[in-house]
Every structure is written in structure tokens, then in C-alpha cells.
Amino acid sequence: MKNNLGRDIPEQIAGNYKIYQGPFEQAIEGRKSSPKIIRVKPGESKLLASLEDAVIKSGLKDGMTISFHHHFRSGDYIINNIMDIIAKLGIKNLTLASSSLTSIHAPLIKHIKNGVIKKITSSGLRGELAEEISKGLMEEPVIIRSHGGRARAIESGDIKIDVAFLGASSSDEYGNANGSNGNAICGPLGYAKIDAEYADKVIIITDSIVDYPNMPASILQINVDYVVKVNEIGDSKGIASGATRFTKNPKELLIADYASKVIVGSEYFKDGFSFQTGTGGSSLAVTRFLRNEMIKQDIKGSFALGGITKPMVEMLEEGLINNIFDVQSFDLVAANSVSKNERHHEISSSFYANPHNKGSAVNKLDIVILSALEVDTNFNVNVITGSDGVIRGASGGHCDAAAGSKLTLIVAPLVRGRIPTIVNKVNTVITPGETIDVVITEIGIAINPKRQDLIEQYKKSDIPVYTIEELKDKAIEIVGNPEKIQYEDKVVALVEYRDGSIIDVIRKVK
Amino acid sequence: MRIIKRAIAGTMESSDIQIVVEAGQGIEIELKSSVEKQFGNQIRKVIRETLEHLDIKDVKVIAVDKGALDCTIRARVLTAAYRGADIKEDYNWEVIN
What we know:
Strand order of the largest sheet of chain A: 1-11-10-7-2-3-4-6-27-28
CATH superfamily of the largest domain in chain A: Glutaconate Coenzyme A-transferase
CATH architecture of chain B: 2-Layer Sandwich
Order of helices and strands of chain B: EEEHEH
Number of helices of chain B: 2
Number of strands of chain A: 28
Number of domains of chain B: 1
Strand content of chain B: 15-25%
Helix content of chain A: 25-40%
Low-confidence stretches of chain B: none
Mean pLDDT of chain B: 94
Number of strands of chain B: 4
Shape of chain B: globular
Largest sheet of chain B: 4 strands, mixed
Strand content of chain A: 15-25%
Oligomer: heterodimer
Distance between the termini of chain B: 19 Å
Mean pLDDT of chain A: 96
Shape of chain A: globular
Low-confidence stretches of chain A: none
Helix content of chain B: 25-40%
Structural class of chain A: alpha/beta
CATH topology of chain B: Ribosomal Protein S5, domain 2
């Protein structure tokens, strides 16, 4: 069957899942899921000698669901180490519910082949693991969930975590853990907070045990069963880069220039506005351009949201923005700021973006700047599959921020090498076009026809305005018409929209 | 035009294509491309057409493409072909139009 974005969903999947109908169309009901009641008595120790002890003590059995977070990014040692131990203990058929997976997790391929991992849900997949899964490595399709969608799924019970293995930069022996002290700092543990609250068993893994109480803590002792000390939780270079450098790429700077003109010209750019930007070259440059304009016009922001980087911290410290809501820090400056700046707030992924709670932070966003691998002429955005159809990215908070924000901008070059960014039909829809307002490229912008107000407003400006079809034609003029990617019938991944409905599927590449 | 020796043009940089030509029988093209799935056939077509324009009938082409545009492909094939034919003047630029 086709869903209402025209995406082809196999009947068998359509019969078992809710199908995407619109950004806020799904009915919701029921009560939140809850973890088992477990009592720790006075005098009992939570400290265990080894990861192996932790896996055994957790009571992990065949067929259970385990979870991890991705705050250690490409420096993470935890997932691979734990999976090796689980494999050695002979436990099989597990569901791996990591908040995301990166290129460092290629060793998981062998655990999928040997039957230890049967199912995966994740925000994204990269590197060799992603390539193998795209080639049909797994019997069960991976479920791709956005950051808000994962929080929703855990709270609703769609994901029931039996054991959460949560790495932390530091912890005390009773499980108060954070990412702001220790040998390898990652900053907020926003994605792990939700696992700690909803998993039946929670194990903290750290290389830095500190004196009790380790406060302020991201994960609290009342949710933690065991604490394990290991030699290293990860490679600090892969966990957080020193500082984010500004781009010198003229194309990215031009895109950023247009984007900041769109923002500054909009009704949303006024005292008390809020915004989120990504970490791409153009996005970071927009932050810098906005900063200059805010100083010039004496405008102060109410909050910045998202994955946080150094430029946002500088704006907080300069008094240009009043608050930062931080679910994950992308560099060391941001990671260190949380404990230093009292208006730099650590938030959970549910607070960040969950569509089915009583109001997440994305609902309060005025402006968001997001990137894209592909945008189609219906404004649908793909951030997960490459132009060759192979998985190489992550859903992240893309569709969450787009749905919540009043003004959603996509910044992307018209072409990348020979690959067009603006296309007739994206390989995979992560974010529906109805939640996108403006697409910004180096040759000009295209405004969603849904936003006649913006079309009226910007046709008088000095920014070149085109229709999205015109942008697509200009891309094709440069690179030629790409051939369609050939897929087999086998579905390798389901893409869940943030509300739990299936917005698209990813098929095996021929 | 006849290819009489092995010659090379282009680089392996992004958005470029490296063309190696050598004496062969008929036009034989061996292509490795980062955009094979989307543009492989188009790249082979442009290489073949450029060679035909130069009236080259026997050549083996080894191409490593990193997402070059058609104009780049034509320029690199032309250069490699003239080098392989050991021609150093009176180039026929028409083929890149």
C-alpha cells in the first residue's frame, strides 16, 4: 500500500504497524510503561567486579531487550565490549535498543551473524554495519526512530528495556552518574536518562568512581542496580572534539548568509526568540551570523536547543541567549559548560522531543536549521540513506524539531560532487515535507507553497527565490539525470515517524 | 587518431576523473566510479563518445571516477588521448563542446 506521502509500504508491514497519516494525526491512549519495583537495602553494595558479573547479575536471558546510549559517539567502547561478553556467555536472540550506533560499532556484524543480536532499533547506522545491514544482513528489519520517537517508544512500552548498560564519565558507588566529571567527558546524558527511568535493570559502567555523592547527577541512584568500574569507557578523542571550527568553504558560507537573511527577515527574529542549529558547516556559520545580527539589533534569545556546540555556549556567556537546553554536547566546550553555567540545562530526550508527553522543548522552538542528504519536490527530507540507497546516517532529532518549530529551514548545497541534493523523490523520507518551510541552497531558496506568507515576504528581498522544481532542474542541469537506484523487495529497515507510525521503509539495494 | 603509448590525465581528487589510455583492440572501458549506481552508464557513454569524436577505434581506457561532471570527463579523456597518441599541437577542441 502507499501511505499518504506516496511511499510504498509492503502489505505485511502495513498490517502490523500504524501507518503515517500526518504530523499530528495518530490517536494516543493508555498509560506509560513502568519498570519493576526493586529494593536495595541499607548496607548493600552495588559495586561489581567486572562487566561479566554485571551481565550475569542483571539476569539477562535469551530474547530480552538491552539498551545503550550514544553519548560516547565514535569513541564508544561499551557496546562492543558488552556484546562480546554477552556472546561469550551464550545469550542469544537479543533486541539491541541503542539510542544510536556509529561507525565504531562494526564488530556488531559478527554478533548479528552468530545470532546474539536478532533485532535492532536505533536512530542511525553508519559505516560497515550500515552497509552490511543495507545488503540484507538481518532477518528482521531495523527500526529507525528519531530521538523524540525513541523516548516516546520507551515511555509507551513499544520498547521495553530489560537491561540498560549505561556508560558514564563518572559515578559514585551508589550509581549517581554524569558525563561532566571523569577521564573522558561527554557532557549531558540526555538520551540515557530515559533508559535509566524505564529499564528493569540499570547498570552504570564508568572508568572513574568518585566519592559519594556525585552531584549533580544525570542518572540517579534510585534507578541504578549495579555499578562497574572498567579501565576505559572510550577514546576521549572520539567522544568529544576540542572545538568546532568555522567553515571557510565559500559555498557553505553563502548558504549560511542566505539562511541568516531568511531568519533575520522573518517575524520570528525578535526579543525572546528560540532556535536550534545543527553541527554542519553551514549551520554553525548561521549561528555566527545570527550572533552578529543579534548584537546589532540588540535582540536576546530565550533559549537554544539541541545538540550543543561551542558557538551557542559563547552566546550564552555573552548574554545573547538566556538559556541552553542540552540533550547532548558535541564538543568539549559545550560539555564543560553544563557544570559551569547554571543556565545551561541538561535535558532528557523526552523533554527534548517526545511528541507524546505534555509538551517537549521542540514545541517551543521558533526557528530550526537542519541539514539534508536529499530534499524532494514535495519538500520531504532524507537524512539516512545515501544517493546510492545505502544507509549512512541517522534520523536524530530532525523530524522532531521540524514538526515542533514555527520556522523550519533546510540548509544544503544544490549538488554534492555529482550528486544532486534536490531530487524528484528522496530515497527515504525521514521528515515529511509538510513540516518543512524553506530550503536554502547556494543559488537561492525555495519556499514550501504551504507558506504563502513567506513567499509574499521574501519575493521582495534580495535573496533569489525559486520554486522547488526550479531548484531541482538547476541541479539536474549541472550533474545530469541520475539513474534510479534498484532495490530488491526485502525490507532492511522501517522508518518510524516520531509518533510511532511507519513513514517509509528502506529496502535492500541490488 | 591512434593510441600508441600508455598515457594518463586527471587525478583521484573529488569531482575529478583519472583517465588512463593504452593501446587496445576496439574501445574497451574499465570504470570504477563513486557514483556508479547513479551515473555509471552516463560516464561510459561520455568516454565512448569523446573517443569516437577523435576517431579513435582501438583503445583500452582505465577510468577512476570521483564524481566528475561530463565536461570534466570529456576534458580528461581528450587530454589522455592526445598524450597517448603523442600529438603535441593542432588539438581538435571541438569535442568538448
